[in-house]
Amino acid sequence: MNISTKLSDKKRGDSNILEVSLKRNSSIESIHRVHAVISDNKGRVLMTAGNPDFQTFIRSSLKPFQALPFISSGTAQKISCGDKGLAICCASHAGTKSHAREVFKLLWNAKVDVSNLQCPIPIKASSPLEHNCSGKHAAFLATCKKMGWELSSYLQGKHPLQKEIFRRVAELLGLPTEELLAARDDCGAPTLLLQLSQMALLYAHLGGSKHAELEQISRAMLAHPEMIAGNGLFDTELIKLAHGQLLSKGGAEGIQCISLLGQGIGMAIKVEDGSRRAKHAVALHLLRQLEWITPGGLEELEEKFLLVGPGVQLEVKGSLELQGT
Predict the structure, then answer these.
(1) Residue among 141, 132, 126, 118 at smallest CA distance from 88
(2) Is the Cβ–Cβ distance between 133 and 60 less than 8 Å?
(3) Which of 87, 119, 245, 307 could make an S-S bridge to 131, C-beta 3.0–4.6 Å?
């Protein structure tokens, strides 16, 4: 089912959809519609706002799971990647010198030339190392080098690396691999079309401490939040201010996923019109409802991400409801 069909779908839970308003002084200027779901690592949908079956692409929120073969193949250990290097593999980073340096280090240790990176060179940048997905691509290439797989076709869906990623994700979701539908992301790598409840399940696994490789990934993200996005950016600031309680990883077109660490619970958010500001506003609104973060930390985040400008702010209406109520 395509996205346009899902936008008009009024399935279960759609009646309590969240709304984010952009207010200029006291007048509403724009409104965004948002779906959210919370699942546990057994696949049970616990709470919803809007439609938990809403289908959309997971985009860059897939990155922690795309790093699984990097670990399971022994590549991360072989090149002495470390937590900082593993964090950059899961990142949508800001392309700073420190980010690019960490990606270069990963490639250097894997004996892979930078010219093999197939992510684009950003506007006003000089190297693909500065692309926000370069860490993921570097992990892909390092894994292919270790396994003796072709480097030039590493982004193709039929490549052994991508097949292994699909297999691992399908395993976490309890699905046959052939049921996964992939499409090209903006960086050239495949991403997956999933239900929001499936995204929440993946993030429940990420924070659940039952999978050794995912536990290694979550520890790395927690230890180096500055690698995941960048100082002042949402994912980095939320991980820092949650003090070891949460992991956060966003994706393009209004996707935001969060893990409650040690509890096996995940949250997934989708803004219908793809707004970044709306997904951040909803994430903070729901974290307040759930009390997953201290009031002080939440207030600091709200000051950074809800106040758009002088006299302009974001306001969220609606709440999560227990499934079946």
Answers:
(1) 132
(2) yes
(3) 119
